[in-house]
Design goal:
By secondary structure, this protein is mostly helical. It is built from 15 helices and no strands. It folds into two domains: 173 residues, UbiA prenyltransferase (Tetracycline Repressor, domain 2); 128 residues, Four Helix Bundle (Hemerythrin (Met), subunit A). The N and C termini lie far apart (66 Å).
Amino acid sequence: MTVHTETLQLGLTQVRRRAADFLALTKPRVVLMVLVTTLVGFYLGSWNGPDYGALLATLIGTALAAGGAIALNQLLEREVDARMERTRLRPLPDGRLRPIEVLAFGAAITSAGLLLLTFAVNALSGLVAAGIVSSYLFLYTPLKRKTSLCSVVGAVPGALPPVIGWAAARGELGLGGWLLFAILFLWQIPHSLAIACLYREDYARAGLRLLPVLEPDGRSTGRQVVAHCLALLAVSLLPTLTGLAGSVYFIAALAFGAAFLGCGIGLAVSRSAAAARRLLWASLVYLPALLVVMALDKVRF
């Protein structure tokens, strides 16, 4: 093997590692969940079957905007991430990428996603996506160090991706889109509080003022979880009652919601890490299962 070949292989390895670090900045698994909810919103909002060209542009634009916003969020929170065990090895706090590189990367793909949605799909979908990016970066991110209400504020941008899909399919914000928003909004509170319970010490070390950090006995967290699970159970039935989905969905939503509520009550009663972990896993099963059944049992809306 020649020196030139060794140098070339070393250079390719470094390129792959940097590419992997930039990809990690976008949190692909989170983006995938965003795309699933966007896809469901687009499908449910389509009149006579989806426009596949518009759907593809919507998904690409949403993926770019979401991934870029997540990268920019990590830029803003690099000092916080450096203090937490679960995040200290991310590319920025670990020093593998420089802040200016992340700023350029995040701004570029976020802008590309918003422009694609605005000009290749419609202006409304681009506007909703811009609202997600701005509220995520400039409201939710700074509020995490100031108030436990950050979970409620953060649930807003997290619940808007299906509204992007609905707006992309219809060019307007209708009742169906807002029902999807309400379901995701209510789902996110138990989901995020379960995570906060599991990583309470890490969040406290970083100075994040989430509810389980401020009130470690878990009573207030349990009440919030149960209240939002109950509200979610009720709201999740509305797609059938408003004609968006059929009776099969109603039965499934009732069963899924009752099971999710049971996990929430379990956390409120025991306030243990095991109960928080069960609730977290239940949340990860509940949402995609509910959305799949809703899409399969769609009624013309």
